[in-house]
Amino acid sequence: MRRRTMLLGAAMLPVPARAWAWDGRTVDVLYAGSLLKLMERGVAPAFDAIGDDIFRGYAGPSGALVHQIRGGLRRGDVFISADPALNGRLGDLVCWYIIFARSPLVIGYNPQSPIVDALQTRPWYEVLQLPGIRIGRTDPALDPKGALTVHMLQQAEAFYHQPGLAARIMGSDRSGQVRPEESLVGRLQSGQIDVGFFYAMETADMQIPSIELPPELALAARYSVTILKDAPNPDGAARFVAFLLGKEGSAVLRQHGLEKMAPVLVGDDRTLPALVRAVIRP
Fold it and tell me: Hey, what domains does the chain have and what are their CATH numbers?
């Protein structure tokens, strides 16, 4: 019988690193919450099928994962972030990282929401200011998507000549808009919110109708991958990264709506595993 992929739900509380058990075959991947479905239903089973390694994933906001890794609350082999700059916050735990994919910010909406007609006939920024509209976004302090959302809304003020637009849409800190990244899609689909800010790969993968932003406002996540310096299973980690960036992994990324980029290596080339080097520099 084929072994099952090991996946840890993103809603789990952080656990001390010593509570994790490694058997020499498990590859622990800490990854951005926006990649949850891609990892669970795409990458994990495909990676498990090609060898003896076992994928074990944990999803969360990229910034929050950095805090957990630095604080010793979360340990893993591979870290995948939606903002390459976050790798720098891990200090000497990261010698290099590779930027490999991107996905632009979009506005997703529930097709059963009463504001759908307005979204289809009026400018999006007017609709998002309607009384009673329920908006969802992630925490800009913990999640790159939340930070991109705030930045986009601030840019929209000048683009649409609408001073104060960002503040009117986001409301006060008590407005209830900020939600955990891993639950935002579910809240939209269940009707708890009318609209939310997502990456295009999320809305495409989950078949959520969305509104694309003008090119001048189309900020995008850029995904990076690295092997942590203290990885318990560095060999398995190298095999995983080589798979992710290789032909089979790239096909899975495209199937789930992620825009594959030509790999960009940042950092110390001398510490790059040979398997990974062979993929990005054939």
Answer: 26-102+221-280 (3.40.190.10), 104-217 (3.40.190.10)
